[in-house]
Transcriptional regulator GcvA (Alcaligenes endophyticus), 298 residues
Amino acid sequence: MRRFCPNLSELQAFEATARQGSFTRAAQELCITQGAVSKQIKSLETFLGVELFVRTSRGLLLTNVGTRYLHEVRAGLNRIEAISMSVMTRVEHSGVLRLTSLPSFGSKWLIPRLPTLRQQHPELNIEFLPHRMGYEFTSPDVDASIRYGTGVWPDSQADYVAGHELVPVCSPGLFTQPAHRPSDLLQYDLLHHTTVQRSWTDWFAAAGQDTIRAWTGPRFDQYMLLIQAAMAGFGTALIPRCLIEEELASGKLIMPLPLPLQAQYGYYFCYPEQKSVLPAVQVFRRWLSHTVALQKGG
């Protein structure tokens, strides 16, 4: 029996038009004419018996039913794409993982470990996409992403990797006298990350000393900048230990006080549910889990 469903090309045209907000931009994305996109949308609306868009002077706006329909259509198209890719690549060939990663974690933790991944899984190729694409999974181009946060995102599953342990670090020449108390760190600037501005406040509270000065000091939007600022002697920074293993081992950074903080934020490997079936995602997940377990065991 023939299924009661619209043409796949019409659904693709609808999803692209809704995302782009324009027949012209959707046509450019799909490599067809604007007229063809308009015709496909009209055919879909006729098939459904409802209007999906309202044409205004400002462009195309989804109707209420169009918004609900888009949510389900997008999920269905993503699922079809993921299953198709799984069949195409086959279980024995992991294929390509299209991944986004925050720059600091990518350069300081992930990339140094990629040679081991290559040795263990030579069939897996990783394509790094711009990290801004990893904040949501509406784009079918992204399979997974490395995010920083609490591990709860509405659009994805998340596996914890590293980053909960924050340590205070500074240049070895910053303090002329060794620090003995938390208050000694206030001799110089406290360096903050803009995403987790409570870190120093939480650190001083855990050390038994609440101070309003824990909120003060320069702010940076990337841990890489914090690391460079701390090494330059600009002040003391709270940084995930996983990002500064080499600097601590080499002495480029020291811990003025051995008081780590267990933070709520960390780095997570995230992926939408429909992409979890991809062999590339499965292989990378297993490798990450094994790598993290070995590091904890060491």
Observations:
- The CA atoms of residues 139 and 273 lie 14 Å apart.
- The first helix runs from residue 8 to 20.
